[in-house]
Amino acid sequence: MTYRNEARAAQRRARAELASGDESRIKYAALELREAMEALTYDRAAAYKNELPPIAYETWQPRKVMELLLEIDPNADKDSSLALGIEETPGVPASVMHSIGSEKVLNLKQLKKHYDALGNFLHVPTLKQSTAGPIDHAKRRERCEQISKFIDDVLKSPVWNSTLGIFAETECEICGETIRKRIPHGAEKLSAKCFGCKATYTVTDAGAGRTHWQLDMVDVSCANPNCHNVTHILHHELKEGSTWTCRDCGGRNRISLGVAFTPVAESEPSP
Ligand SMILES: [Zn+2]
Ligand SMILES: [Zn+2]
């Protein structure tokens, strides 16, 4: 089964439902359009099969799958165009490029905008919704038409799922999970996240096709006024409720919400 074919079939069925003109069948069009959106997102994910973390295989909501893809490649949901040229000097981009075509991608914005909205069409109006008046079938139809048009454009792209690029990878220092990140051309500094333990890294270009991965840490002082120990905690753990035991005084520190006060005399600029 190819997801792209699934998307095509669902799109065809949605079109037929809309063409019937029967307002009670709009919900079936909505259902098919949701399927098409799911299939297109999984199709996109399949293009990253070597980079996908195992968690992506357990995720089904298209929006979440797309968010995972964007974590690996910030361009995963961006339209692109592909062009080829022959380099006259090795390493120097060719002066003449021939366009192969452009790709339109079902992006996160469209998914967020439409996927859940279509879900509403599948249910009986809630008590609150029913007080707002009868279902506006014309509006629902228009929305389905709009989404169908967008899906059509995606399916008509002459090139698709081109994920050309350089992917850097490392083993997480904390949990050992492999972390992959696409390095866009010319990027010097990027942020990457481990799907295993949520630790974040700053990835920098180290030249000659190599990358340097630095775990994001923060220095925090022990809150015991008689202790001067400074500990390093993971950046993503710098949040309310995180605790650690001080290595020097043995006391426990906990990050909690607080109010810092500065008396008026101290905050005034000195004459
Ligand atoms: Zn990790
Ligand atoms: Zn201490």
Fold blueprint:
Layout: H1 3-19, H2 26-46, H3 55-58, H4 62-72, E1 80-84, E2 98-103, H5 108-120, H6 127-131, H7 137-156, E3 166-171, E4 178-183, E5 189-193, E6 200-207, E7 210-215, E8 217-221, E9 230-234, E10 243-245, E11 252-254, H8 264-267
Antiparallel strand pairs: 1-2, 3-4, 5-6, 6-7, 8-9, 10-11
The structure holds zinc ion (ZN) (2 copies).
Describe the structure concisely.
Strand 5 (189-193) and strand 6 form a beta hairpin.
Protein model, in words:
The protein starts with a helix and ends with a helix. The protein folds into 3 domains: 3-156; 166-215, no CATH class; 218-258, no CATH class. The chain has helices at 3-19, 26-46, 55-58, 62-72, 108-120, 127-131, 137-156, 264-267, and strands spanning 80-84, 98-103, 166-171, 178-183, 189-193, 200-207, 210-215, 217-221, 230-234, 243-245, 252-254. Strand 3 (166-171) and strand 4 form a beta hairpin. The mean pLDDT is 86. It is of the alpha+beta class and 271 residues long. The structure holds zinc ion (ZN) (2 copies). One zinc ion binds at residues 172, 174-175, 177, 194, 196-197, 199.
Global shape: flat
Named once each, the bound ligands are:
zinc ion
Distance from N terminus to C terminus (CA atoms, Å) equals 77 Å
Can you count the helices?
Answer: 8
Q: How much strand?
A: 15-25%
Q: Could you say how many structural domains there are in total?
A: 3
Average predicted local confidence, pLDDT: 86
Find the count of extended strands (DSSP E, 2+ residues). Answer: 11
* Spatial sequence of strands, sheet with the most strands: 5-6-7
Oligomer: single chain
- In the predicted model, the low-confidence regions spanning at least 5 consecutive residues are none
Class computed from helices, strands and strand pairing: alpha+beta
CA-atom Rg in angstroms = 26 Å
Main pleated-sheet profile: 3 strands, antiparallel
Helix content: 25-40%
Order of helices and strands: HHHHEEHHHEEEEEEEEEH
